From TrEMBL:
It comes from Sphingomonas echinoides. The keyword Ribonucleoprotein applies. This is Large ribosomal subunit protein bL28. Keywords: Ribonucleoprotein, Ribosomal protein. The gene is rpmB. It comes from the Bacteria. Belongs to the bacterial ribosomal protein bL28 family. GO terms for cellular component: ribosome. InterPro entries: Ribosomal_bL28 (IPR026569), Ribosomal_bL28/bL31-like_sf (IPR034704), Ribosomal_bL28_bact-type (IPR001383), Ribosomal_bL28_sf (IPR037147). The keyword Calcium does not apply.
Amino acid sequence: MSRICELTGKGRMVGNNVSHANNKTKRTFLPNLQNVTLISDALGTSVKLRVSAHGLRSVEHVGGLDNWLVKTTDDKLSLRARRLKRDVAKKLTAAPQAAA
């Protein structure tokens, strides 16, 4: 399982451990990934995703999973999230026509 956020695309970063003697050794910085269940209001279902803590805060700030998917570009999203975005967009465009 890759260590990449499914919503923001945030992944592993590399850097150096620097000792007191200024010796440098490579190390990795991993994102704070959490397995969360987010609710899609448009689809009326819950979705399990692997999201970073930063991504989860961003989703809550924007106003939910559906708003986040509509506003985010496809290149940041994982394949599962892109499919979810497509389904949400279909539901959102079909809903106004049914109400009219």
